[in-house]
Task: inverse folding
């Protein structure tokens, strides 16, 4: 006699996402293990903060910035001083026993400074005192002198740009080092984000395969009931048993993949082994990204383009400076001062205060190498280097634009794949329900049900993969536009990192 058994129940369409969320939020872990709850943004920030290679690279912009301070030292005033004592004992004349004893004392101090125009100014105080034993009016005198002098280039070396060429070059080197750091930070952030997404995907796959195993076991239990009732041949239990074994194998593979993904993420974040990581699927986001806006952002934010622009600026600046340095050297020089002269210091300084003995000079200094071949060669070389840098920038921008467009197409395709795979899951669930009912009526075999169940599992895994690919497409797009760090809430601070804050500092 045929008896209807309890109908086989499969997880309803809305139950599996809930199971996935619970599995991601509360992953299977050893008893007593510490659990660390992370969002995708937390993961990226932690990776940027803890990555040892990135910490090493952080020193490069800071080291380069010290070059700016060193280059600005050209404006540091130079203080110099000289103290000198000279003496001599000389025979006054042949056949004479009289010895001329002369003693000279000198103390000079000066301070000089370079000006942005390229001029050099100095203020010096020279103090000379002399005495001898000849008994003449000039045998004892003091001669203090105060002089202000300057030298202003009129051709070669004229102007702030030429004077501060070392500062500009050091500043560009710091910006270049910052671009290198930012590129490494982008790579680190993208790797961490994709590893987090891989863990979410692995856990969703694990949840799907747990549901598949539950279904296979339910089929096995119902078949055993039918065999006991005498409505199913005993040999048909082999199909359901094989289905359970295959589902268990698939679950073990999924669990191993989930463990591998979690371990990889722990290594990237430098988290102690054994710490459980609770994850939550990131929000779906919107694929409506304007290609024009994305390209504009990439041209402004990508570190490789920023670095290429810095290289162009440096090369064009060096070309401009080299043209100036190829000019003849012509300088306007002048000085003015006051001198005191008397037997006593007091009177000598009195002469200075009254400007009794003024002195001055003004003139031009000119020099140029015959042929000037070295400077001309520098101009030619810097001109070609500038052309090379501009070509490299154009190539970098072209490559970046291609990468952005490719990422946008991948994002659009991944979004469409989600819709397709969702329909596939719906169709597979309807088919599964149909075959379960047919099995109750004896119109479908256990193998048919298990084959349809495998198709449902594959459809659900395809949906999981599509969602993961969609989030990965966002990672690739934001990395291509150079805005991944901002998108994950990471702001660069500090004088050694935010180079634009450095502009105009004294």
Result:
């Amino acid at each position: 006699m045929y008896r209807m058994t309890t109908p086989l129940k499969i997880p309803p369409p809305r139950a599996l996402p809930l199971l996935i969320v619970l599995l991601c939020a509360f992953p299977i872990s050893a008893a007593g293990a510490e659990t660390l709850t992370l969002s995708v943004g937390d993961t990226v920030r932690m990776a940027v903060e803890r990555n040892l290679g990135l910490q090493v690279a952080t020193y490069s912009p800071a080291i380069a910035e010290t070059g700016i301070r060193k280059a600005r030292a050209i404006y540091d005033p130079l203080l110099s001083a000289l103290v000198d004592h000279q003496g001599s004992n000389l025979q006054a004349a042949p056949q004479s026993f009289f010895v001329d004893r002369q003693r000279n004392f000198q103390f000079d101090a000066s301070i000089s400074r370079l000006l942005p125009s390229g001029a050099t100014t100095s203020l010096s105080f020279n103090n000379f005192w002399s005495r001898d034993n000849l008994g003449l009016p000039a045998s004892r005198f003091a001669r203090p002198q105060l002089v202000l002098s300057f030298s202003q280039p009129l051709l070669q070396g004229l102007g702030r740009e030429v004077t501060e060429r070392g500062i500009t070059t050091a500043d560009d080197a710091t910006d270049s080092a910052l671009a290198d750091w930012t590129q490494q930070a982008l790579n680190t952030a993208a790797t961490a984000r994709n590893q987090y997404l891989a863990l979410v995907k692995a856990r969703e796959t694990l949840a799907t395969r747990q549901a598949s195993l539950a279904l296979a076991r339910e089929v096995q239990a119902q078949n055993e009931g039918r065999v006991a009732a005498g409505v199913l041949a005993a040999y048909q239990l082999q199909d359901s048993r094989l289905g359970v074994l295959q589902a268990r194998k698939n679950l073990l593979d999924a669990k191993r993949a989930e463990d591998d993904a979690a371990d990889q993420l722990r290594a990237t974040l430098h988290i102690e082994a054994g710490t459980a990581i609770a994850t939550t699927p990131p929000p779906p986001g919107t694929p409506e990204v304007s290609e024009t806006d994305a390209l504009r952002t990439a041209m402004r934010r990508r570190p490789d383009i920023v670095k290429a622009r810095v290289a162009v600026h440096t090369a064009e600046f060096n070309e401009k400076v080299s043209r100036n340095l190829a000019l003849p050297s012509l300088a306007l020089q002048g000085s003015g001062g006051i001198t005191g002269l008397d037997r006593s210091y007091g009177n000598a300084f009195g002469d200075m205060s009254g400007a009794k003995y003024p002195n001055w000079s003004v003139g031009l200094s000119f020099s140029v190498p015959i042929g000037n071949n070295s400077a001309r060669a520098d101009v030619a070389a810097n001109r070609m280097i500038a052309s090379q840098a501009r070509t490299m920038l154009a190539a970098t921008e072209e490559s970046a634009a291609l990468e952005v467009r490719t990422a946008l197409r991948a994002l659009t395709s991944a979004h469409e794949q989600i819709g397709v795979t969702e329909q596939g899951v719906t169709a597979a669930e309807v088919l599964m329900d149909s075959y379960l009912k047919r099995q109750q009526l004896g119109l479908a075999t256990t193998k048919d049900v298990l084959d349809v169940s495998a198709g449902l599992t594959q459809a659900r895994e395809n949906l999981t993969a599509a969602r993961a690919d969609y989030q990965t497409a966002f990672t690739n797009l934001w990395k291509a536009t150079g805005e991944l760090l901002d998108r994950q809430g990471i702001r660069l601070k500090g004088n050694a990192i935010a180079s634009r804050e450095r502009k105009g500092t004294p």
Observations:
- Residues 373-440 form the longest helix (68 residues).
- The beta strands are 35-38, 78-91, 99-114, 120-132, 140-153, 276-279, 329-339, 357-367.
- The two ends are 99 Å apart (CA to CA).
- Confidence is low (pLDDT under 50) at residues 1-16, 18-26, 28-32, 498-506.
